[in-house]
Amino acid sequence: MRSTLQYEADFWIMSVTAVITQGVGIVFLWAIFRSIPRINGWDFWEIVLVYSLVVLAEGVSQLFAQGVWNLARVVNTGELDPYLIRPYSPVLQVLGSEVGMNGLGNVGLGIALLVGAVIHVQVAWSPARLALLAILVVSGGLVKIGLNLLANSSAFWLKTTWAMVPFSLHTFGELTRFPLTIYSTAIRLVLAVVLPYAFMSFFPATAVLGRGAPQWVGLLTPLAAGYCLLLATWVFRRGLVRYESAGH
Amino acid sequence: MTLPLDAGRTVNVPFRAYRRLALAALRSLTAYPMSFAFSMLASAFSALAMLYLWRAVLSNGRASSGFDWPHMKAYLLVTFVANSLVSAYTDYQMCLRIRQGDIAMDLIRPLDYQRARFAEACGFGLYEAGAGIGAVAVATLIFGGLPAPSLRSFGLFLLSAVFVLPLRFGIVYTSGLVTFWTQNYVGVQAARIALVTFLSGSLVPLAFFPGWLRVIAGAAPFAGMASTPALIFGGQLQGAAALRAVGVQAVWTVALWLLARAFWLRASRQLTVNGG
Fold it and tell me: Could you give the number of structural domains in chain B?
């Protein structure tokens, strides 16, 4: 953290960039909703809720687990070696090897959007429902971290110099910024089951709003988070067995 | 070491030299087709989300701000190809070479820096356009065919499309020069992509903007980078209005080129090469 803060100008550039990039997406939604009241039955603030959960999950994963995006490089160059010597979990070391400062911008914007959505959607907010939302937000972040680790663990098999496969999966996951119902069955199936990115935004939102999908699916989010993290750690360990450093 | 150079010099170099640069740029992409395909997949996924979203919005023959589903489809696919031009390579390589000091080598060469980068952007662009059109062909298999433009519209569309690459180059090149001041370019690049995508009408057609924003985006160079050719292709922009829009493109192409040159004169004086 301190090493990143040293470059103060860079920190501000990255934070502002994160806000601009995601903010443009919100302006886009606003521009559409100027002429259309609903998309597949979802109004503006309901979609903002879904969108804010993706921004938050992205921000959380950047702040706590940005290092996973270096995995392809360190596997390719053999820089992974020092992690394996230290008496500490290699998975956690890889995840924590970098703090993505643009995560702060995303978390800030995500919270702002979430608060806006919570105020405007037609839901009777009780303390229990707000607590549920908080649990689902945290679980959504963990889903994202788990899926990032899973995707990046492909580095042990692919051995490419940069994380091109995980990055395209990440952009695929961004499809969940919009309600899942707009997509074709095949895409829905992949986002809900195969690579359950929908659990970081759409399903939690349906659980809170009580519509769009059966509520119990959204309540499974913490389980989905646990499943993603366990699966990812298992795949990472399997990959580690194949790791043969550089040279030799 | 600060290089005291006459950065604005124009040397008479045969066109052949620039053509070679363009070819080399093209080959650098064809050598790593997988890497290119995956980087393109990222923009393809976001285009996919847009297509599904608009299909949901415009289902059952509904129309909004003058767009029905077939026309929106055509609009989105043309802007997708436009956006794939001068996507990342030009500024990525510039910033890498500026940061590492390799730029000194570029300055020694008897080539005009801006023209050389433009030649490379054309080389990349050939590949990017080909891949983009290929992706559009796949998209039409999923989402159905596009409304065919009239012959007149199509001719004007081709003319308008020619301006897309130099316009985008002007912005990308200028923002690449920012590396002379900031060491971290990733943020500048991401912000530039977000702003250009939005103001060029690639995310949502300019017709959906409120009036004041539409006027700004229309007069700025951004509309010509995606919106203008896409609207001409779909037939929403015709006759005198279309000719005027192409004229705006032409004026901005020249203006951006000259602005970039002026910016280069200032930027290149910022250069400090390590260990000199």
Answer: 1
